[in-house]
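Researcher: For the record, we're logging two predictions in this thread. I'll number them. Prediction 1 follows.
Model: Prediction 1, sequence and structure:
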Amino acid sequence: MSHSAATRARQGQNVVQFLPVAPLIRIMIVDDSPVARAVLSRMISAHRDLEVVALAGTAGEALDALKAIKVDIVLLDVEMPGTTGLQALPDIVRLGDGARVLVVSSFCEEGAEANVKALALGAADTLPKPGAGNFAGRFSDVLAERLRRIGRAGVERTGEEAIARQEAASIVTLRAMPDRTLGCIALGASTGGLHALNEFLCALPSRIGAPIFITQHLPVVFMPVFARQIETASGRATRVGEEGMVVQPEEIIVAPGDAHLGLRRDGNQVRIALSDGPARSGCKPSVDPMLESVREIYGEGAVAVILSGMGRDGLDGSLKLVKSGGAVLAQDEGSSAVWGMPRAVAEAGLASAVLPPADLAKRLAARIAGAAWK
């Protein structure tokens, strides 16, 4: 309360304070069904912090609308006449100018390949349409929670909040990149991470002389599809980690959805050692146990890459890795669907680079090639 307002309050005068109002999350609905568009619009409009600003019946209409209107989230169906939602997804991400995409479709049932493909193409999240056994009548609440979770990252910040974010960004301090021989790459990601993983892996040299480990927050049913998608995109043999599996250079091993990915030495070999105990982050699989394990095995040769995701998973493991001489790279805010995990690492001063995924891969390629670091 200001000084003059406090004085008036002491004098018994009514004082009205106008608190800043958070901007509404602006949403476009893209679905070929008029009924679905109407139902989704009613559900969203029932929440005071959400606003439907555009409706489109085809992918083409959505792309045209994005040229003229600013939105925070595009709610996208998969199966539509002409260009499907998945086919249009990369263009929607490009024209959306930072808008997040939530794919809502009956094709996105648990374990469906459409889920992983949508996430890999740039969707921030997926959600199955309500059906038998889905959400027990709570779909409206689940949808609103999901929109809030991914939408705030796309809302333009103004005033004091923008200044605070700019000041926070200005104090991020980069560490020197170690020049040790690469022992391994350990990638951690969550919401928006599949697209980032693809960009990073595709930008790596074909030969790096080291294994790659991935912990991506996904349910166990997605893991076989996820591993196949990563193998196709990266051109590297990819396996879901199993207890005792021997680690090979140039190979990618992903954490199973029901256990943390760890490592152990067995003579001259490194083997997978899974664990299912609680992690501080509350995630399973969690990035932290993976980073602690690669620190123990590879030490100064370990490089962690923290990509898009909500929360702070990976922060504790990154701190321990840096203390042991390893390196940490973080995705930047502009390219992240949710700048939570990489932000925690960057603002803690643990990162040697904060860049888009492909540029992080190029930095790492320069280290592998022995280039000078600036």
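Researcher: Logged. Prediction 2.
Model: Prediction 2, sequence and structure:
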Amino acid sequence: MAISHVTDQTFATEIKEGLVLVDFWAAWCGPCKMIAPVLEEIDAEMGDKVGIIKLNVDENPETTRSFGVMSIPSLILFKDGAEVDKVIGFQPKDALTELILKHS
């Protein structure tokens, strides 16, 4: 599966089934740029276990606000539409993989 970008309008549809990791990010955010290749690696290795989507916080304030995202990158893990876990800031690949496996 490829990492896709979502908007306020498409967000609810994208998280409603299965395990989905959402990356709340912005183009100007240094740590967001650092975590992008980590997410690509996880997607390549675990694409059948988890979907990964990205939401630009500057372009989608409604969803950002509704999940209380105050710092980026914020990564929220959803299972069948419900929030099950959340981490803030850059995370190493091992930590994110462990987070996903804990809920799969």
